[in-house]
């Protein structure tokens, strides 16, 4: 549609110029030679425009129309004699058509060169785009290879550590079981020994998870089905970290917008997830700070938020927060949040980082609700 309108507009300009100059020829007295000479030269304008805009066909069509329309005036009004004193005007007629032919040919060639240059530019742009994509893929593959190499190295180290640590853990658990037999249920000593046995079991599971994580495998127990109550897991985590929080004078608060909230994660894994989040928040919170755990269920989703009053996580490194081995602490391993993310993802959820209302970091876990 735009091309048709443009062609019509250009044709109208050519017709107006050519027609107007021819009418001026016929309307000007024949004894006024100077105006006729001027009109002859001006007739090149519509001819050149037609050749430039429409190529050889457009230029020759216009020049022939002008020639045939001008011929009667030349032969009869201006005295004729095309080979005598009118020879100059005869050459003018031929020049119109020659100029139309040459200009049209040059215009078409220029148009072809322009189209070829545009096609080449598009091909180069596509080639650059393909090269950029391939470069990105190569860099991504290289990063994955480096990551796999680190995991393989860590896997070998973790295998040796697991063997050395599990033996003492077995001894500690066995000793705790023997000592527990000397106390009755309900006594504080029996309760402490029960906690010790439970934590040794959990520590052994964490060690196994670390080993499998380092090998690039799934965390143990992920295939197991089951649900757990968030409040029970928070209670266990609060009890486990009671001394650590008291030493730091950090207040741990739990706000349950949806009491009795359950999530599709086995209790041991949910405890590990919350323990990593709260411990991470406690380590980032200054003396006398606060940590808030908020839980709610909305739109068939369960949300667990852990906020702290620490310095927070800068926006430029939030994307790296869940990457394995990424840490901003000198004594950190960089696996705590990675394990949190894996637990959430295997349960069909996700982990997010944001800004806390307390001024520090916000770690949000979104899971399918039950």
Write the layout of secondary structure elements.
Blueprint: H1 2-27, H2 33-42, H3 44-77, H4 87-180, H5 188-214, E1 228-229, H6 230-240, H7 242-248, E2 251-256, E3 262-263, H8 267-284, E4 290-298, E5 301-308, H9 336-346, E6 350-355, E7 361-368
Question: Could you walk me through the main structural features you see in this protein, from its secondary elements to its overall organization?
Answer:
With 370 residues, the protein is α+β, with helices and mostly antiparallel strands. It has three domains: 121 residues, no CATH class; 70 residues, Orthogonal Bundle (Helix Hairpins); 141 residues, Histidine kinase-like ATPase, C-terminal domain (Heat Shock Protein 90), CATH 3.30.565. It has nine helices and seven strands. The strands form two sheets. Strands 2-4-5-7-6 form a five-stranded mixed beta sheet, with helices on one face. The chain has a two-stranded antiparallel sheet with strand order 1-3. Strand 4 and strand 5 form a beta hairpin. Helix 1 packs antiparallel against helix 2. It is rod-shaped, with a radius of gyration of 44 Å. About 2% of the residues have low confidence.
Which structural traits does this protein have?
370 residues, alpha+beta, Helix Hairpins, Heat Shock Protein 90, two-stranded antiparallel ribbon, 9 helices, 7 strands, 11% strand
Strand content: 5-15%
Question: How helix-rich are the residues, as a percent range?
Answer: 55-70%
Shape estimate: rod-shaped
Which regions have little confidence, pLDDT < 50, spanning 5+ residues? 216-224
Can you identify the CATH superfamily of the largest domain?
Histidine kinase-like ATPase, C-terminal domain
Q: Sheet bearing the most strands, described? A: 5 strands, mixed
Structural domains: how many: 3
CATH class category of the largest domain: Alpha Beta
Query: What Rg, in angstroms, do the CA atoms define?
Result: 44 Å
Give the H and E element order: HHHHHEHHEEHEEHEE
CATH architecture of the largest domain: 2-Layer Sandwich
């Amino acid at each position: 549609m735009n091309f048709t309108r443009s062609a019509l507009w250009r044709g109208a300009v050519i017709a107006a110029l050519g027609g107007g100059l021819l009418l001026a020829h016929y309307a000007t007295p024949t004894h006024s030679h100077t105006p006729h000479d001027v009109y002859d030269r001006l007739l090149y304008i519509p001819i050149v425009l037609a050749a430039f805009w429409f190529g050889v066909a457009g230029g020759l069509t216009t020049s022939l129309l002008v020639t045939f329309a001008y011929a009667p005036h030349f032969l009869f009004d201006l005295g004729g004699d095309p080979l005598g004193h009118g020879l100059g005007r005869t050459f003018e007629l031929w020049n119109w058509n020659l100029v139309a032919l040459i200009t049209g040919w040059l215009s078409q060639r220029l148009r072809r060169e322009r189209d070829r240059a545009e096609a080449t530019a598009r091909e180069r742009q596509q080639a650059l785009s393909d090269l950029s994509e391939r470069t990105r893929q190569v860099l991504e593959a290289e990063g994955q290879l480096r990551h796999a190499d680190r995991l393989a190295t860590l896997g070998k180290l973790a295998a040796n550590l697991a063997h050395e640590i599990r033996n003492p853990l077995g001894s500690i658990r066995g000793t705790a079981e023997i000592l527990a037999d000397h106390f009755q249920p309900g006594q504080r000593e029996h309760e402490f020994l029960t906690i010790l046995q439970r934590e040794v079991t959990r520590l052994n599971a964490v060690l196994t998870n670390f080993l499998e994580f380092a090998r690039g495998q799934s965390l143990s127990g992920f295939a197991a089905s089951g649900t757990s109550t968030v409040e029970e897991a928070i209670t266990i985590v609060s009890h486990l970290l009671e001394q650590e929080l008291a030493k730091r004078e950090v207040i741990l608060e739990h706000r349950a917008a949806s009491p009795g909230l359950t999530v599709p994660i086995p209790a041991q894994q949910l405890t590990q997830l919350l323990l990593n989040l709260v411990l991470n928040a406690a380590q980032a919170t200054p003396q006398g700070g606060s940590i808030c755990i908020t839980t709610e269920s909305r739109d068939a989703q369960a949300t667990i938020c852990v906020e702290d009053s620490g310095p927070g996580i800068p926006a430029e490194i939030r994307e790296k927060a869940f990457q394995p081995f990424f840490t901003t602490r000198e004594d950190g391993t960089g696996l705590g949040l990675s394990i949190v993310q894996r637990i959430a993802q295997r349960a069909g959820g996700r982990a997010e980082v944001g800004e806390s209302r307390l001024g520090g970091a916000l770690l949000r876990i979104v899971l399918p609700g039950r």
